[in-house]
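User: Some background: our group keeps a shared notebook of sequences we're curious about, and every so often someone picks one and asks for a predicted structure to add to the entry. Today it's my turn. The entry only has the sequence so far, pasted here. Could you supply the structure so I can complete it?
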Amino acid sequence: MIRKRLTVRFVWQLVMSGAILAVVAIAIVTWMLGKFAEIEMNRNFAPLGISQLIAEATIDAQGLIVDPKLLQRLQEDGGWLQSLDGNGSVLQSFNAPDDLPTHYIPGKLMDYWIGSEPFPYKLGMWIQEKDGHLYTLLYGARSQTEDLLRDVMADGQIQNDMISFSAHVLSQIDKAGSSIQVLDSKGVEIAAWRKPIDAPKSYSLQELAMGSNDQVKNGMRMDTRYDDSTGLTWVYHYRVNDGSETQLVGVPIINTEAEVIIIGIATFLILAFLVFVSLSLWYANWFVAPIIHILGWIQRLGKGDYTKGTEKRNHRIFIEVMESIHTLAATLQAARDAEALAQKNRAAWIAGVTHDMKTPLSSIKGYAHMLEAENYSWSEDEVREFASTILEKSAYIDKLNSDLALTFRLKSGDIPVKMELKDIGMLLPESIRSATSHPMYESERVRYSIPSTPIMAMVYSPWFDRIVDNLIANAFIHNSEGTRIDIELSKLPENGWRIDFSDDGRGMNEQTIKQLFERYYRGTDTESAVEGSGLGMAVTKELVQAMGGRIKVNSRLGKGTMISIIWDASR
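Assistant: Of course. Here's the predicted structure to add to the notebook entry:
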């Protein structure tokens, strides 16, 4: 189970990490493609901007409804759009100048388009289908610098390496944030006005071509014009209107595809690093921390500390291991408690045995010294009395040894006896008569009740007699004179049966009930009957259990005691 759970956790974690990285990669690629399109539209609104304008536009009865943001970009690019039908008539116009025609002759429009016929604007034509309708858009743009550069060339006066302008032209240049260079026929600078710091002093053919082809560098774009009359080339640098006026403070302006690629890759690597750091922290919390907790718990067990410790939610993944260690700790704790109890019982057992052996031995030793004394001469009756006492004490010691041997053999199950089917209703009265025949007991103080229905069960008669004997002796020995005992045999379901031994004596407290069947818990002296020795109740419990029964005690101080021996099913 734990292997399956760990496998599922690891696979789930890796799949989730892969999914997160895939989502991040898709988001970054989408952002990069959007930035590429934005950069391209900043350079030249057509053709990407026109294609996007048609794709994102909605259609109503009047025609296309264009996104206002795209129209603003069209205006910033200095371009215009006209939507034409199949005959060349203008259906819609966007940012169109007043000098544009409202109808185009198809053949003449083709001449405008290919440049064989002069037209005041650079033209582009896009034909694109949307929602089953074919749209024809005519795009035109006039150079943002054409008029200003014409004025600069006409107004500029070159003196040495400097250029001077009139106040009117100078205000236009300042408003555009422009700078100007003048090159000779070899591309070498001969004069400049507010030249950019990174602008070269000479240009090759390739540099002029690339610079004039909408290349943006540091937010600046370049335009050139050649003056046939002087043989000079005027280079005009002007600031690109890329929306930087609305750029948030602290957010870098991205002008090139290389910057987009670098930012995209760097962002992916940073996010991937964060994902793996998060994954490592997750592993540390859900796998390493529980393992450290388990190792610490095992170390405490080795030192004898069986406390469980605080469980946390992340420990549940190793719940089987935790439960096994908890079971082990409980077992070790129970073993230690059992060992402590065994040591305590052993000490009590030794003390009890020593006491019970010492008392009769002292009597035997005393009478032996009296018989051995040369200064005294004992009569025959006195010698016979001494011998009787010695025999009585010897019998007590012999019975004590037998009880000790019997209890330990019962504990180990090393007593092979043959159980016989007996009528308990007939066996019980015989055992009661045998027990009450002792001269210290009064048989009339014992009453018993036998049901009319026979109760047949498998028992060993000598053990059964011993059980009845011990229970009657226990009731008489530990209660005051005049105590009455009621014994009742009754039938239980499924051929079970029970015998209740009830007395009206002084009763017992909870502590006495719990330890009633411990050896020597309630000892006696050698003047009492052998049945009342400190081993009687311990032997009784072992004999009942050996024959498949159980024993139960109910008692209250001042209310008497009832001891029941129960067989839940006939054996």
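Suggested note for the entry: The chain has a mean pLDDT of 80. The domain at 417-567 is CATH 3.30.565.10 (Heat Shock Protein 90).
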